Each structure stands twice: as C-alpha cells, then as structure tokens.
C-alpha cells in the first residue's frame, strides 16, 4: 500500500490561491476582533488576562465575549475550508491533518468558553499543539527555502513553549516574567502570524512553485 509523500502538484486542480485567501482572512479577522474585544473589556490586561478571558468570564463581559467567541468560530470554519481546498489540490495530508485538528479546536474554544473549565482547556491545548505542528509540517507543501526556515523556527519556538508549560506549569519563569496572558500570546501569535504569511505565500504563488514528485513514503 502506497501513501502520499509530501504534496502532489496538480495544475488542473490548483486551489492554493483560494486556500491562501481563506487563511489570510481567518487570522486577520481574528487579530482585529481581539483588539476590538480588548477595548470593550474594562480593566483588561494583556499581561494578566488570557485571550480566552475575553469570551469566557462569568458573567460575560459584552460585547467583548460575543466578538471574541464569534471570531474564533469564524476562524475555525475558514481554516477548515482552506484545508479542504489544500487537500483537493494535492497538498500534504500530514500538514492538512494537523491544521484541520487545530481548526476544530478553535471551533471548540469558541463554542465552549473558558468558564466551561476542562472542556475549554482541552480545546485550547489542541489549538496550540496542533497549530504549532501544522506550522512545522507546512514545509511539506513544497515551500521555498526561506519559508521552510521560517516555518521550522516559528513552529519549534511555539512547540518548545507549550512543552515548557506542560513540564513546569505552576512555576514557569516565562509566565512569571510576562504574565500568563503575555506568555500565552508568545505561544499563539507566532503560529497565527505564520499562517498569515503562508496565506500570502499561497495566494501570490507563481513560478516559484516547487513540483513535488509522486514518490513512495508516508503522509
């Protein structure tokens, strides 16, 4: 049984540009929504408060909660649509699977705000973990060398921070220095910013496309 290795170039079924536009819109609208929600949350601190606090306090702070939760759900839906187009174009299944799981996690974060406790925490971990893995494995899309370097540096940076929190959550020096909200942003924002960059790369992609040959191997 043969498995697809990397990506397959299918010029007759090339939906990468459409996928790139969806990735761009998904993360850009989220950044704008977060900034708007922060202005509508009295006393909000980017150092002390997490992103999820914008949509998950009891009682909910409106319109901040509605803005944040709706934006996260929209981001999840748009990213899932982008994953579908990438797979339809012959894109790497390993990258696509990780990104799809992260997008599903984003839907869970929006549908189950932080006051739901462990359910929200589960979806948050899914987003952070599989989002960073998707960034790392994005090189399987056949990116050029500069983008590959950026993907590895960005993804490994976020992944190392996630693992550091898993090992030393209670007395994490990074969180002690930046605050829980600041540390969370250093995990989430590199991934989101890279997805914006990847969206722009796919949207404008032309002759620099790297044709990945049909080969034996893994996902």
UniProtKB/TrEMBL annotation:
The chain crosses the membrane at residues 21-46, 66-87, 94-115, 121-141, 148-170, 186-204. Keywords: Membrane, Transmembrane, Transmembrane helix. This is DUF998 domain-containing protein.
